[in-house]
């Protein structure tokens, strides 16, 4: 019996085409809660940007920043997993020798950007968000950094995670950039924190996702559903592939499994 369902936002709840949640999905979320099934967000977005996208919808809790920050609907913290300060120091020195590479730092409910380039603008347009305030990278010192976003190609991963952000790992869902979190954090780890808090068994869970950072949770939950707009390698790890976000994919899967 499904007791809890976790939803990614971009490309899953929210369409990349319309930047809105389809009406069928809104109705499905309402019906799930009326049936007593708990619904949760599981996103790479920080809290403020999550609320911009789905803040008018009711959820029971949130896994944000790819599992680095989890909290309840009433704002009670469940888990925080910060980037170690020694990694922040190495990244400050690295960025001074690679000034062409922008980084975003997320701390508390705020974020800032080291500088803006075309990749930053392209991703902002894709997921319909604003450009963060531009501040010196030294601003990241002595703060609880929950996530970093690095705008660099995958071929740079070995260099950066081998010698700079050595206690971190990338959660990449787009070739232009990576969400970067402390090693050990993931959407699946965040889900475990939520389930422990609410006393729900992992076998009674379901998740919907479409990106590379969704792979850990799709493989982890009792029933993993990939959206029809997901890439083939993401669909391959899921238990079921539904239709796309723009073709009522969430409702289709819930009806397929007779949950609604």
TrEMBL record:
<dbReference type="InterPro" id="IPR023214">
    <property type="entry name" value="HAD_sf"/>
</dbReference>
<keyword id="KW-0378">Hydrolase</keyword>
<dbReference type="Pfam" id="PF08282">
    <property type="entry name" value="Hydrolase_3"/>
</dbReference>
<dbReference type="InterPro" id="IPR036412">
    <property type="entry name" value="HAD-like_sf"/>
</dbReference>
<protein>
    <submittedName>
        <fullName>Cof-type HAD-IIB family hydrolase</fullName>
    </submittedName>
</protein>
<dbReference type="InterPro" id="IPR000150">
    <property type="entry name" value="Cof"/>
</dbReference>
<dbReference type="InterPro" id="IPR006379">
    <property type="entry name" value="HAD-SF_hydro_IIB"/>
</dbReference>
<dbReference type="GO" id="GO:0016787">
    <property type="term" value="F:hydrolase activity"/>
</dbReference>
């Amino acid at each position: 019996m499904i007791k809890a369902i976790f939803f990614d936002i971009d490309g899953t709840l929210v369409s990349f085409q319309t930047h809105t949640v389809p009406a069928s999905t809104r109705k499905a979320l309402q019906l799930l809660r009326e049936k007593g099934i708990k619904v949760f967000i599981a996103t790479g977005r920080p809290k403020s940007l999550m609320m911009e996208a789905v803040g008018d919808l009711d959820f029971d809790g949130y896994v944000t920043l790819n599992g680095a920050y989890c909290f309840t609907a009433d704002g009670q913290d469940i888990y925080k997993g910060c980037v170690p300060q020694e990694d922040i120091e190495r990244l400050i020195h690295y960025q001074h020798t690679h000034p062409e590479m922008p980084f975003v730092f997320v701390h508390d409910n705020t974020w800032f950007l080291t500088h803006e380039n075309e990749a930053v603008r392209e991703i902002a347009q894709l997921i319909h968000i604003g450009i963060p305030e531009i501040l010196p990278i030294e601003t990241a010192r002595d703060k609880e950094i929950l996530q970093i976003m690095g705008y660099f190609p995958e071929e740079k991963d070995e260099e950066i995670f081998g010698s700079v952000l050595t206690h971190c790992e990338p959660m990449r869902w787009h070739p232009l950039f990576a969400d970067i979190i402390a090693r050990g954090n993931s959407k699946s780890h965040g889900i475990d924190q939520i389930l422990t808090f609410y006393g729900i068994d992992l076998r009674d869970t379901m998740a919907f996702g479409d990106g590379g950072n969704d792979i850990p949770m799709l493989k982890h939950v009792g029933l993993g559903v990939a959206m029809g707009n997901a890439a083939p390698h993401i669909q391959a790890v899921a238990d079921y592939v539904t239709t796309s976000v723009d073709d009522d994919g969430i409702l289709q899967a819930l009806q397929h499994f007779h949950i609604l």
